[in-house]
Amino acid sequence: MKVEDVMTKKVITLKSNQTIAEAVGKLAENGISGAPVLDDDDKVVGMVTEKDILKALKTRSKSVEMVYPSLSMLSVAFVQKNIIKETLEAFTEIASSKISDIMEKNVLYAEKGTALAMVVETMTKRDVNRVPVMDSGKLIGIVSRADVIKGLAKGMAQNNKH
Asked: Within this chain, do residues 49 and 64 fall inside the same structural domain, yes or no?
């Protein structure tokens, strides 16, 4: 079985100059958890996933507060406190940032004709959920873990018919 046998041909993509808010909207609207990022020449330059967006959320911040009474009468003591911000507040801070600021730039991809077994092994080793499929530098599809499972089920069904 080859990678193109199970890939999704209609690929939802993002542009590197889009904002994180736009990426969140597009991922949610299409019910997907990640997408390849293209530059203005439609070359794959990155991958953005829900994980990247959640990592970018800064839900913790630190503040320094004076503590009374001080242990020493001559100095004031300061203590660092961790404050947990609301998720929406944290998202508002990053929403207008560019996708290129948080995307994974080292994209694992498969060339058309690659054995599916090799792709699955690499996905598992690198803990990757989706792999763009390329044909001479052009994006022609994407393989997700769900695509692999569907492909295996289809392959089993075909084998049972024989």
From this structure: no
Question: How buried is residue 3: exposed, middle or buried, by Cβ count under 10 Å (0-12/13-18/19+)?
Answer: buried
On whether both 103 and 146 belong to a single domain, the answer is: yes
Range of the domain at 149: 3-57+91-161
pTM: 0.78
Using alpha carbons, list the distances in angstroms from residue 153 to 14, 123, 131, 162: 30, 19, 19, 15
Measured CA to CA, the distance from residue 39 to residue 15 in angstroms comes to: 6
pLDDT, tens digit (0-9, with 9 covering 90-100), for 133-152:
999 999 999 999 999 998 88
Same domain flag for 51 and 25: yes
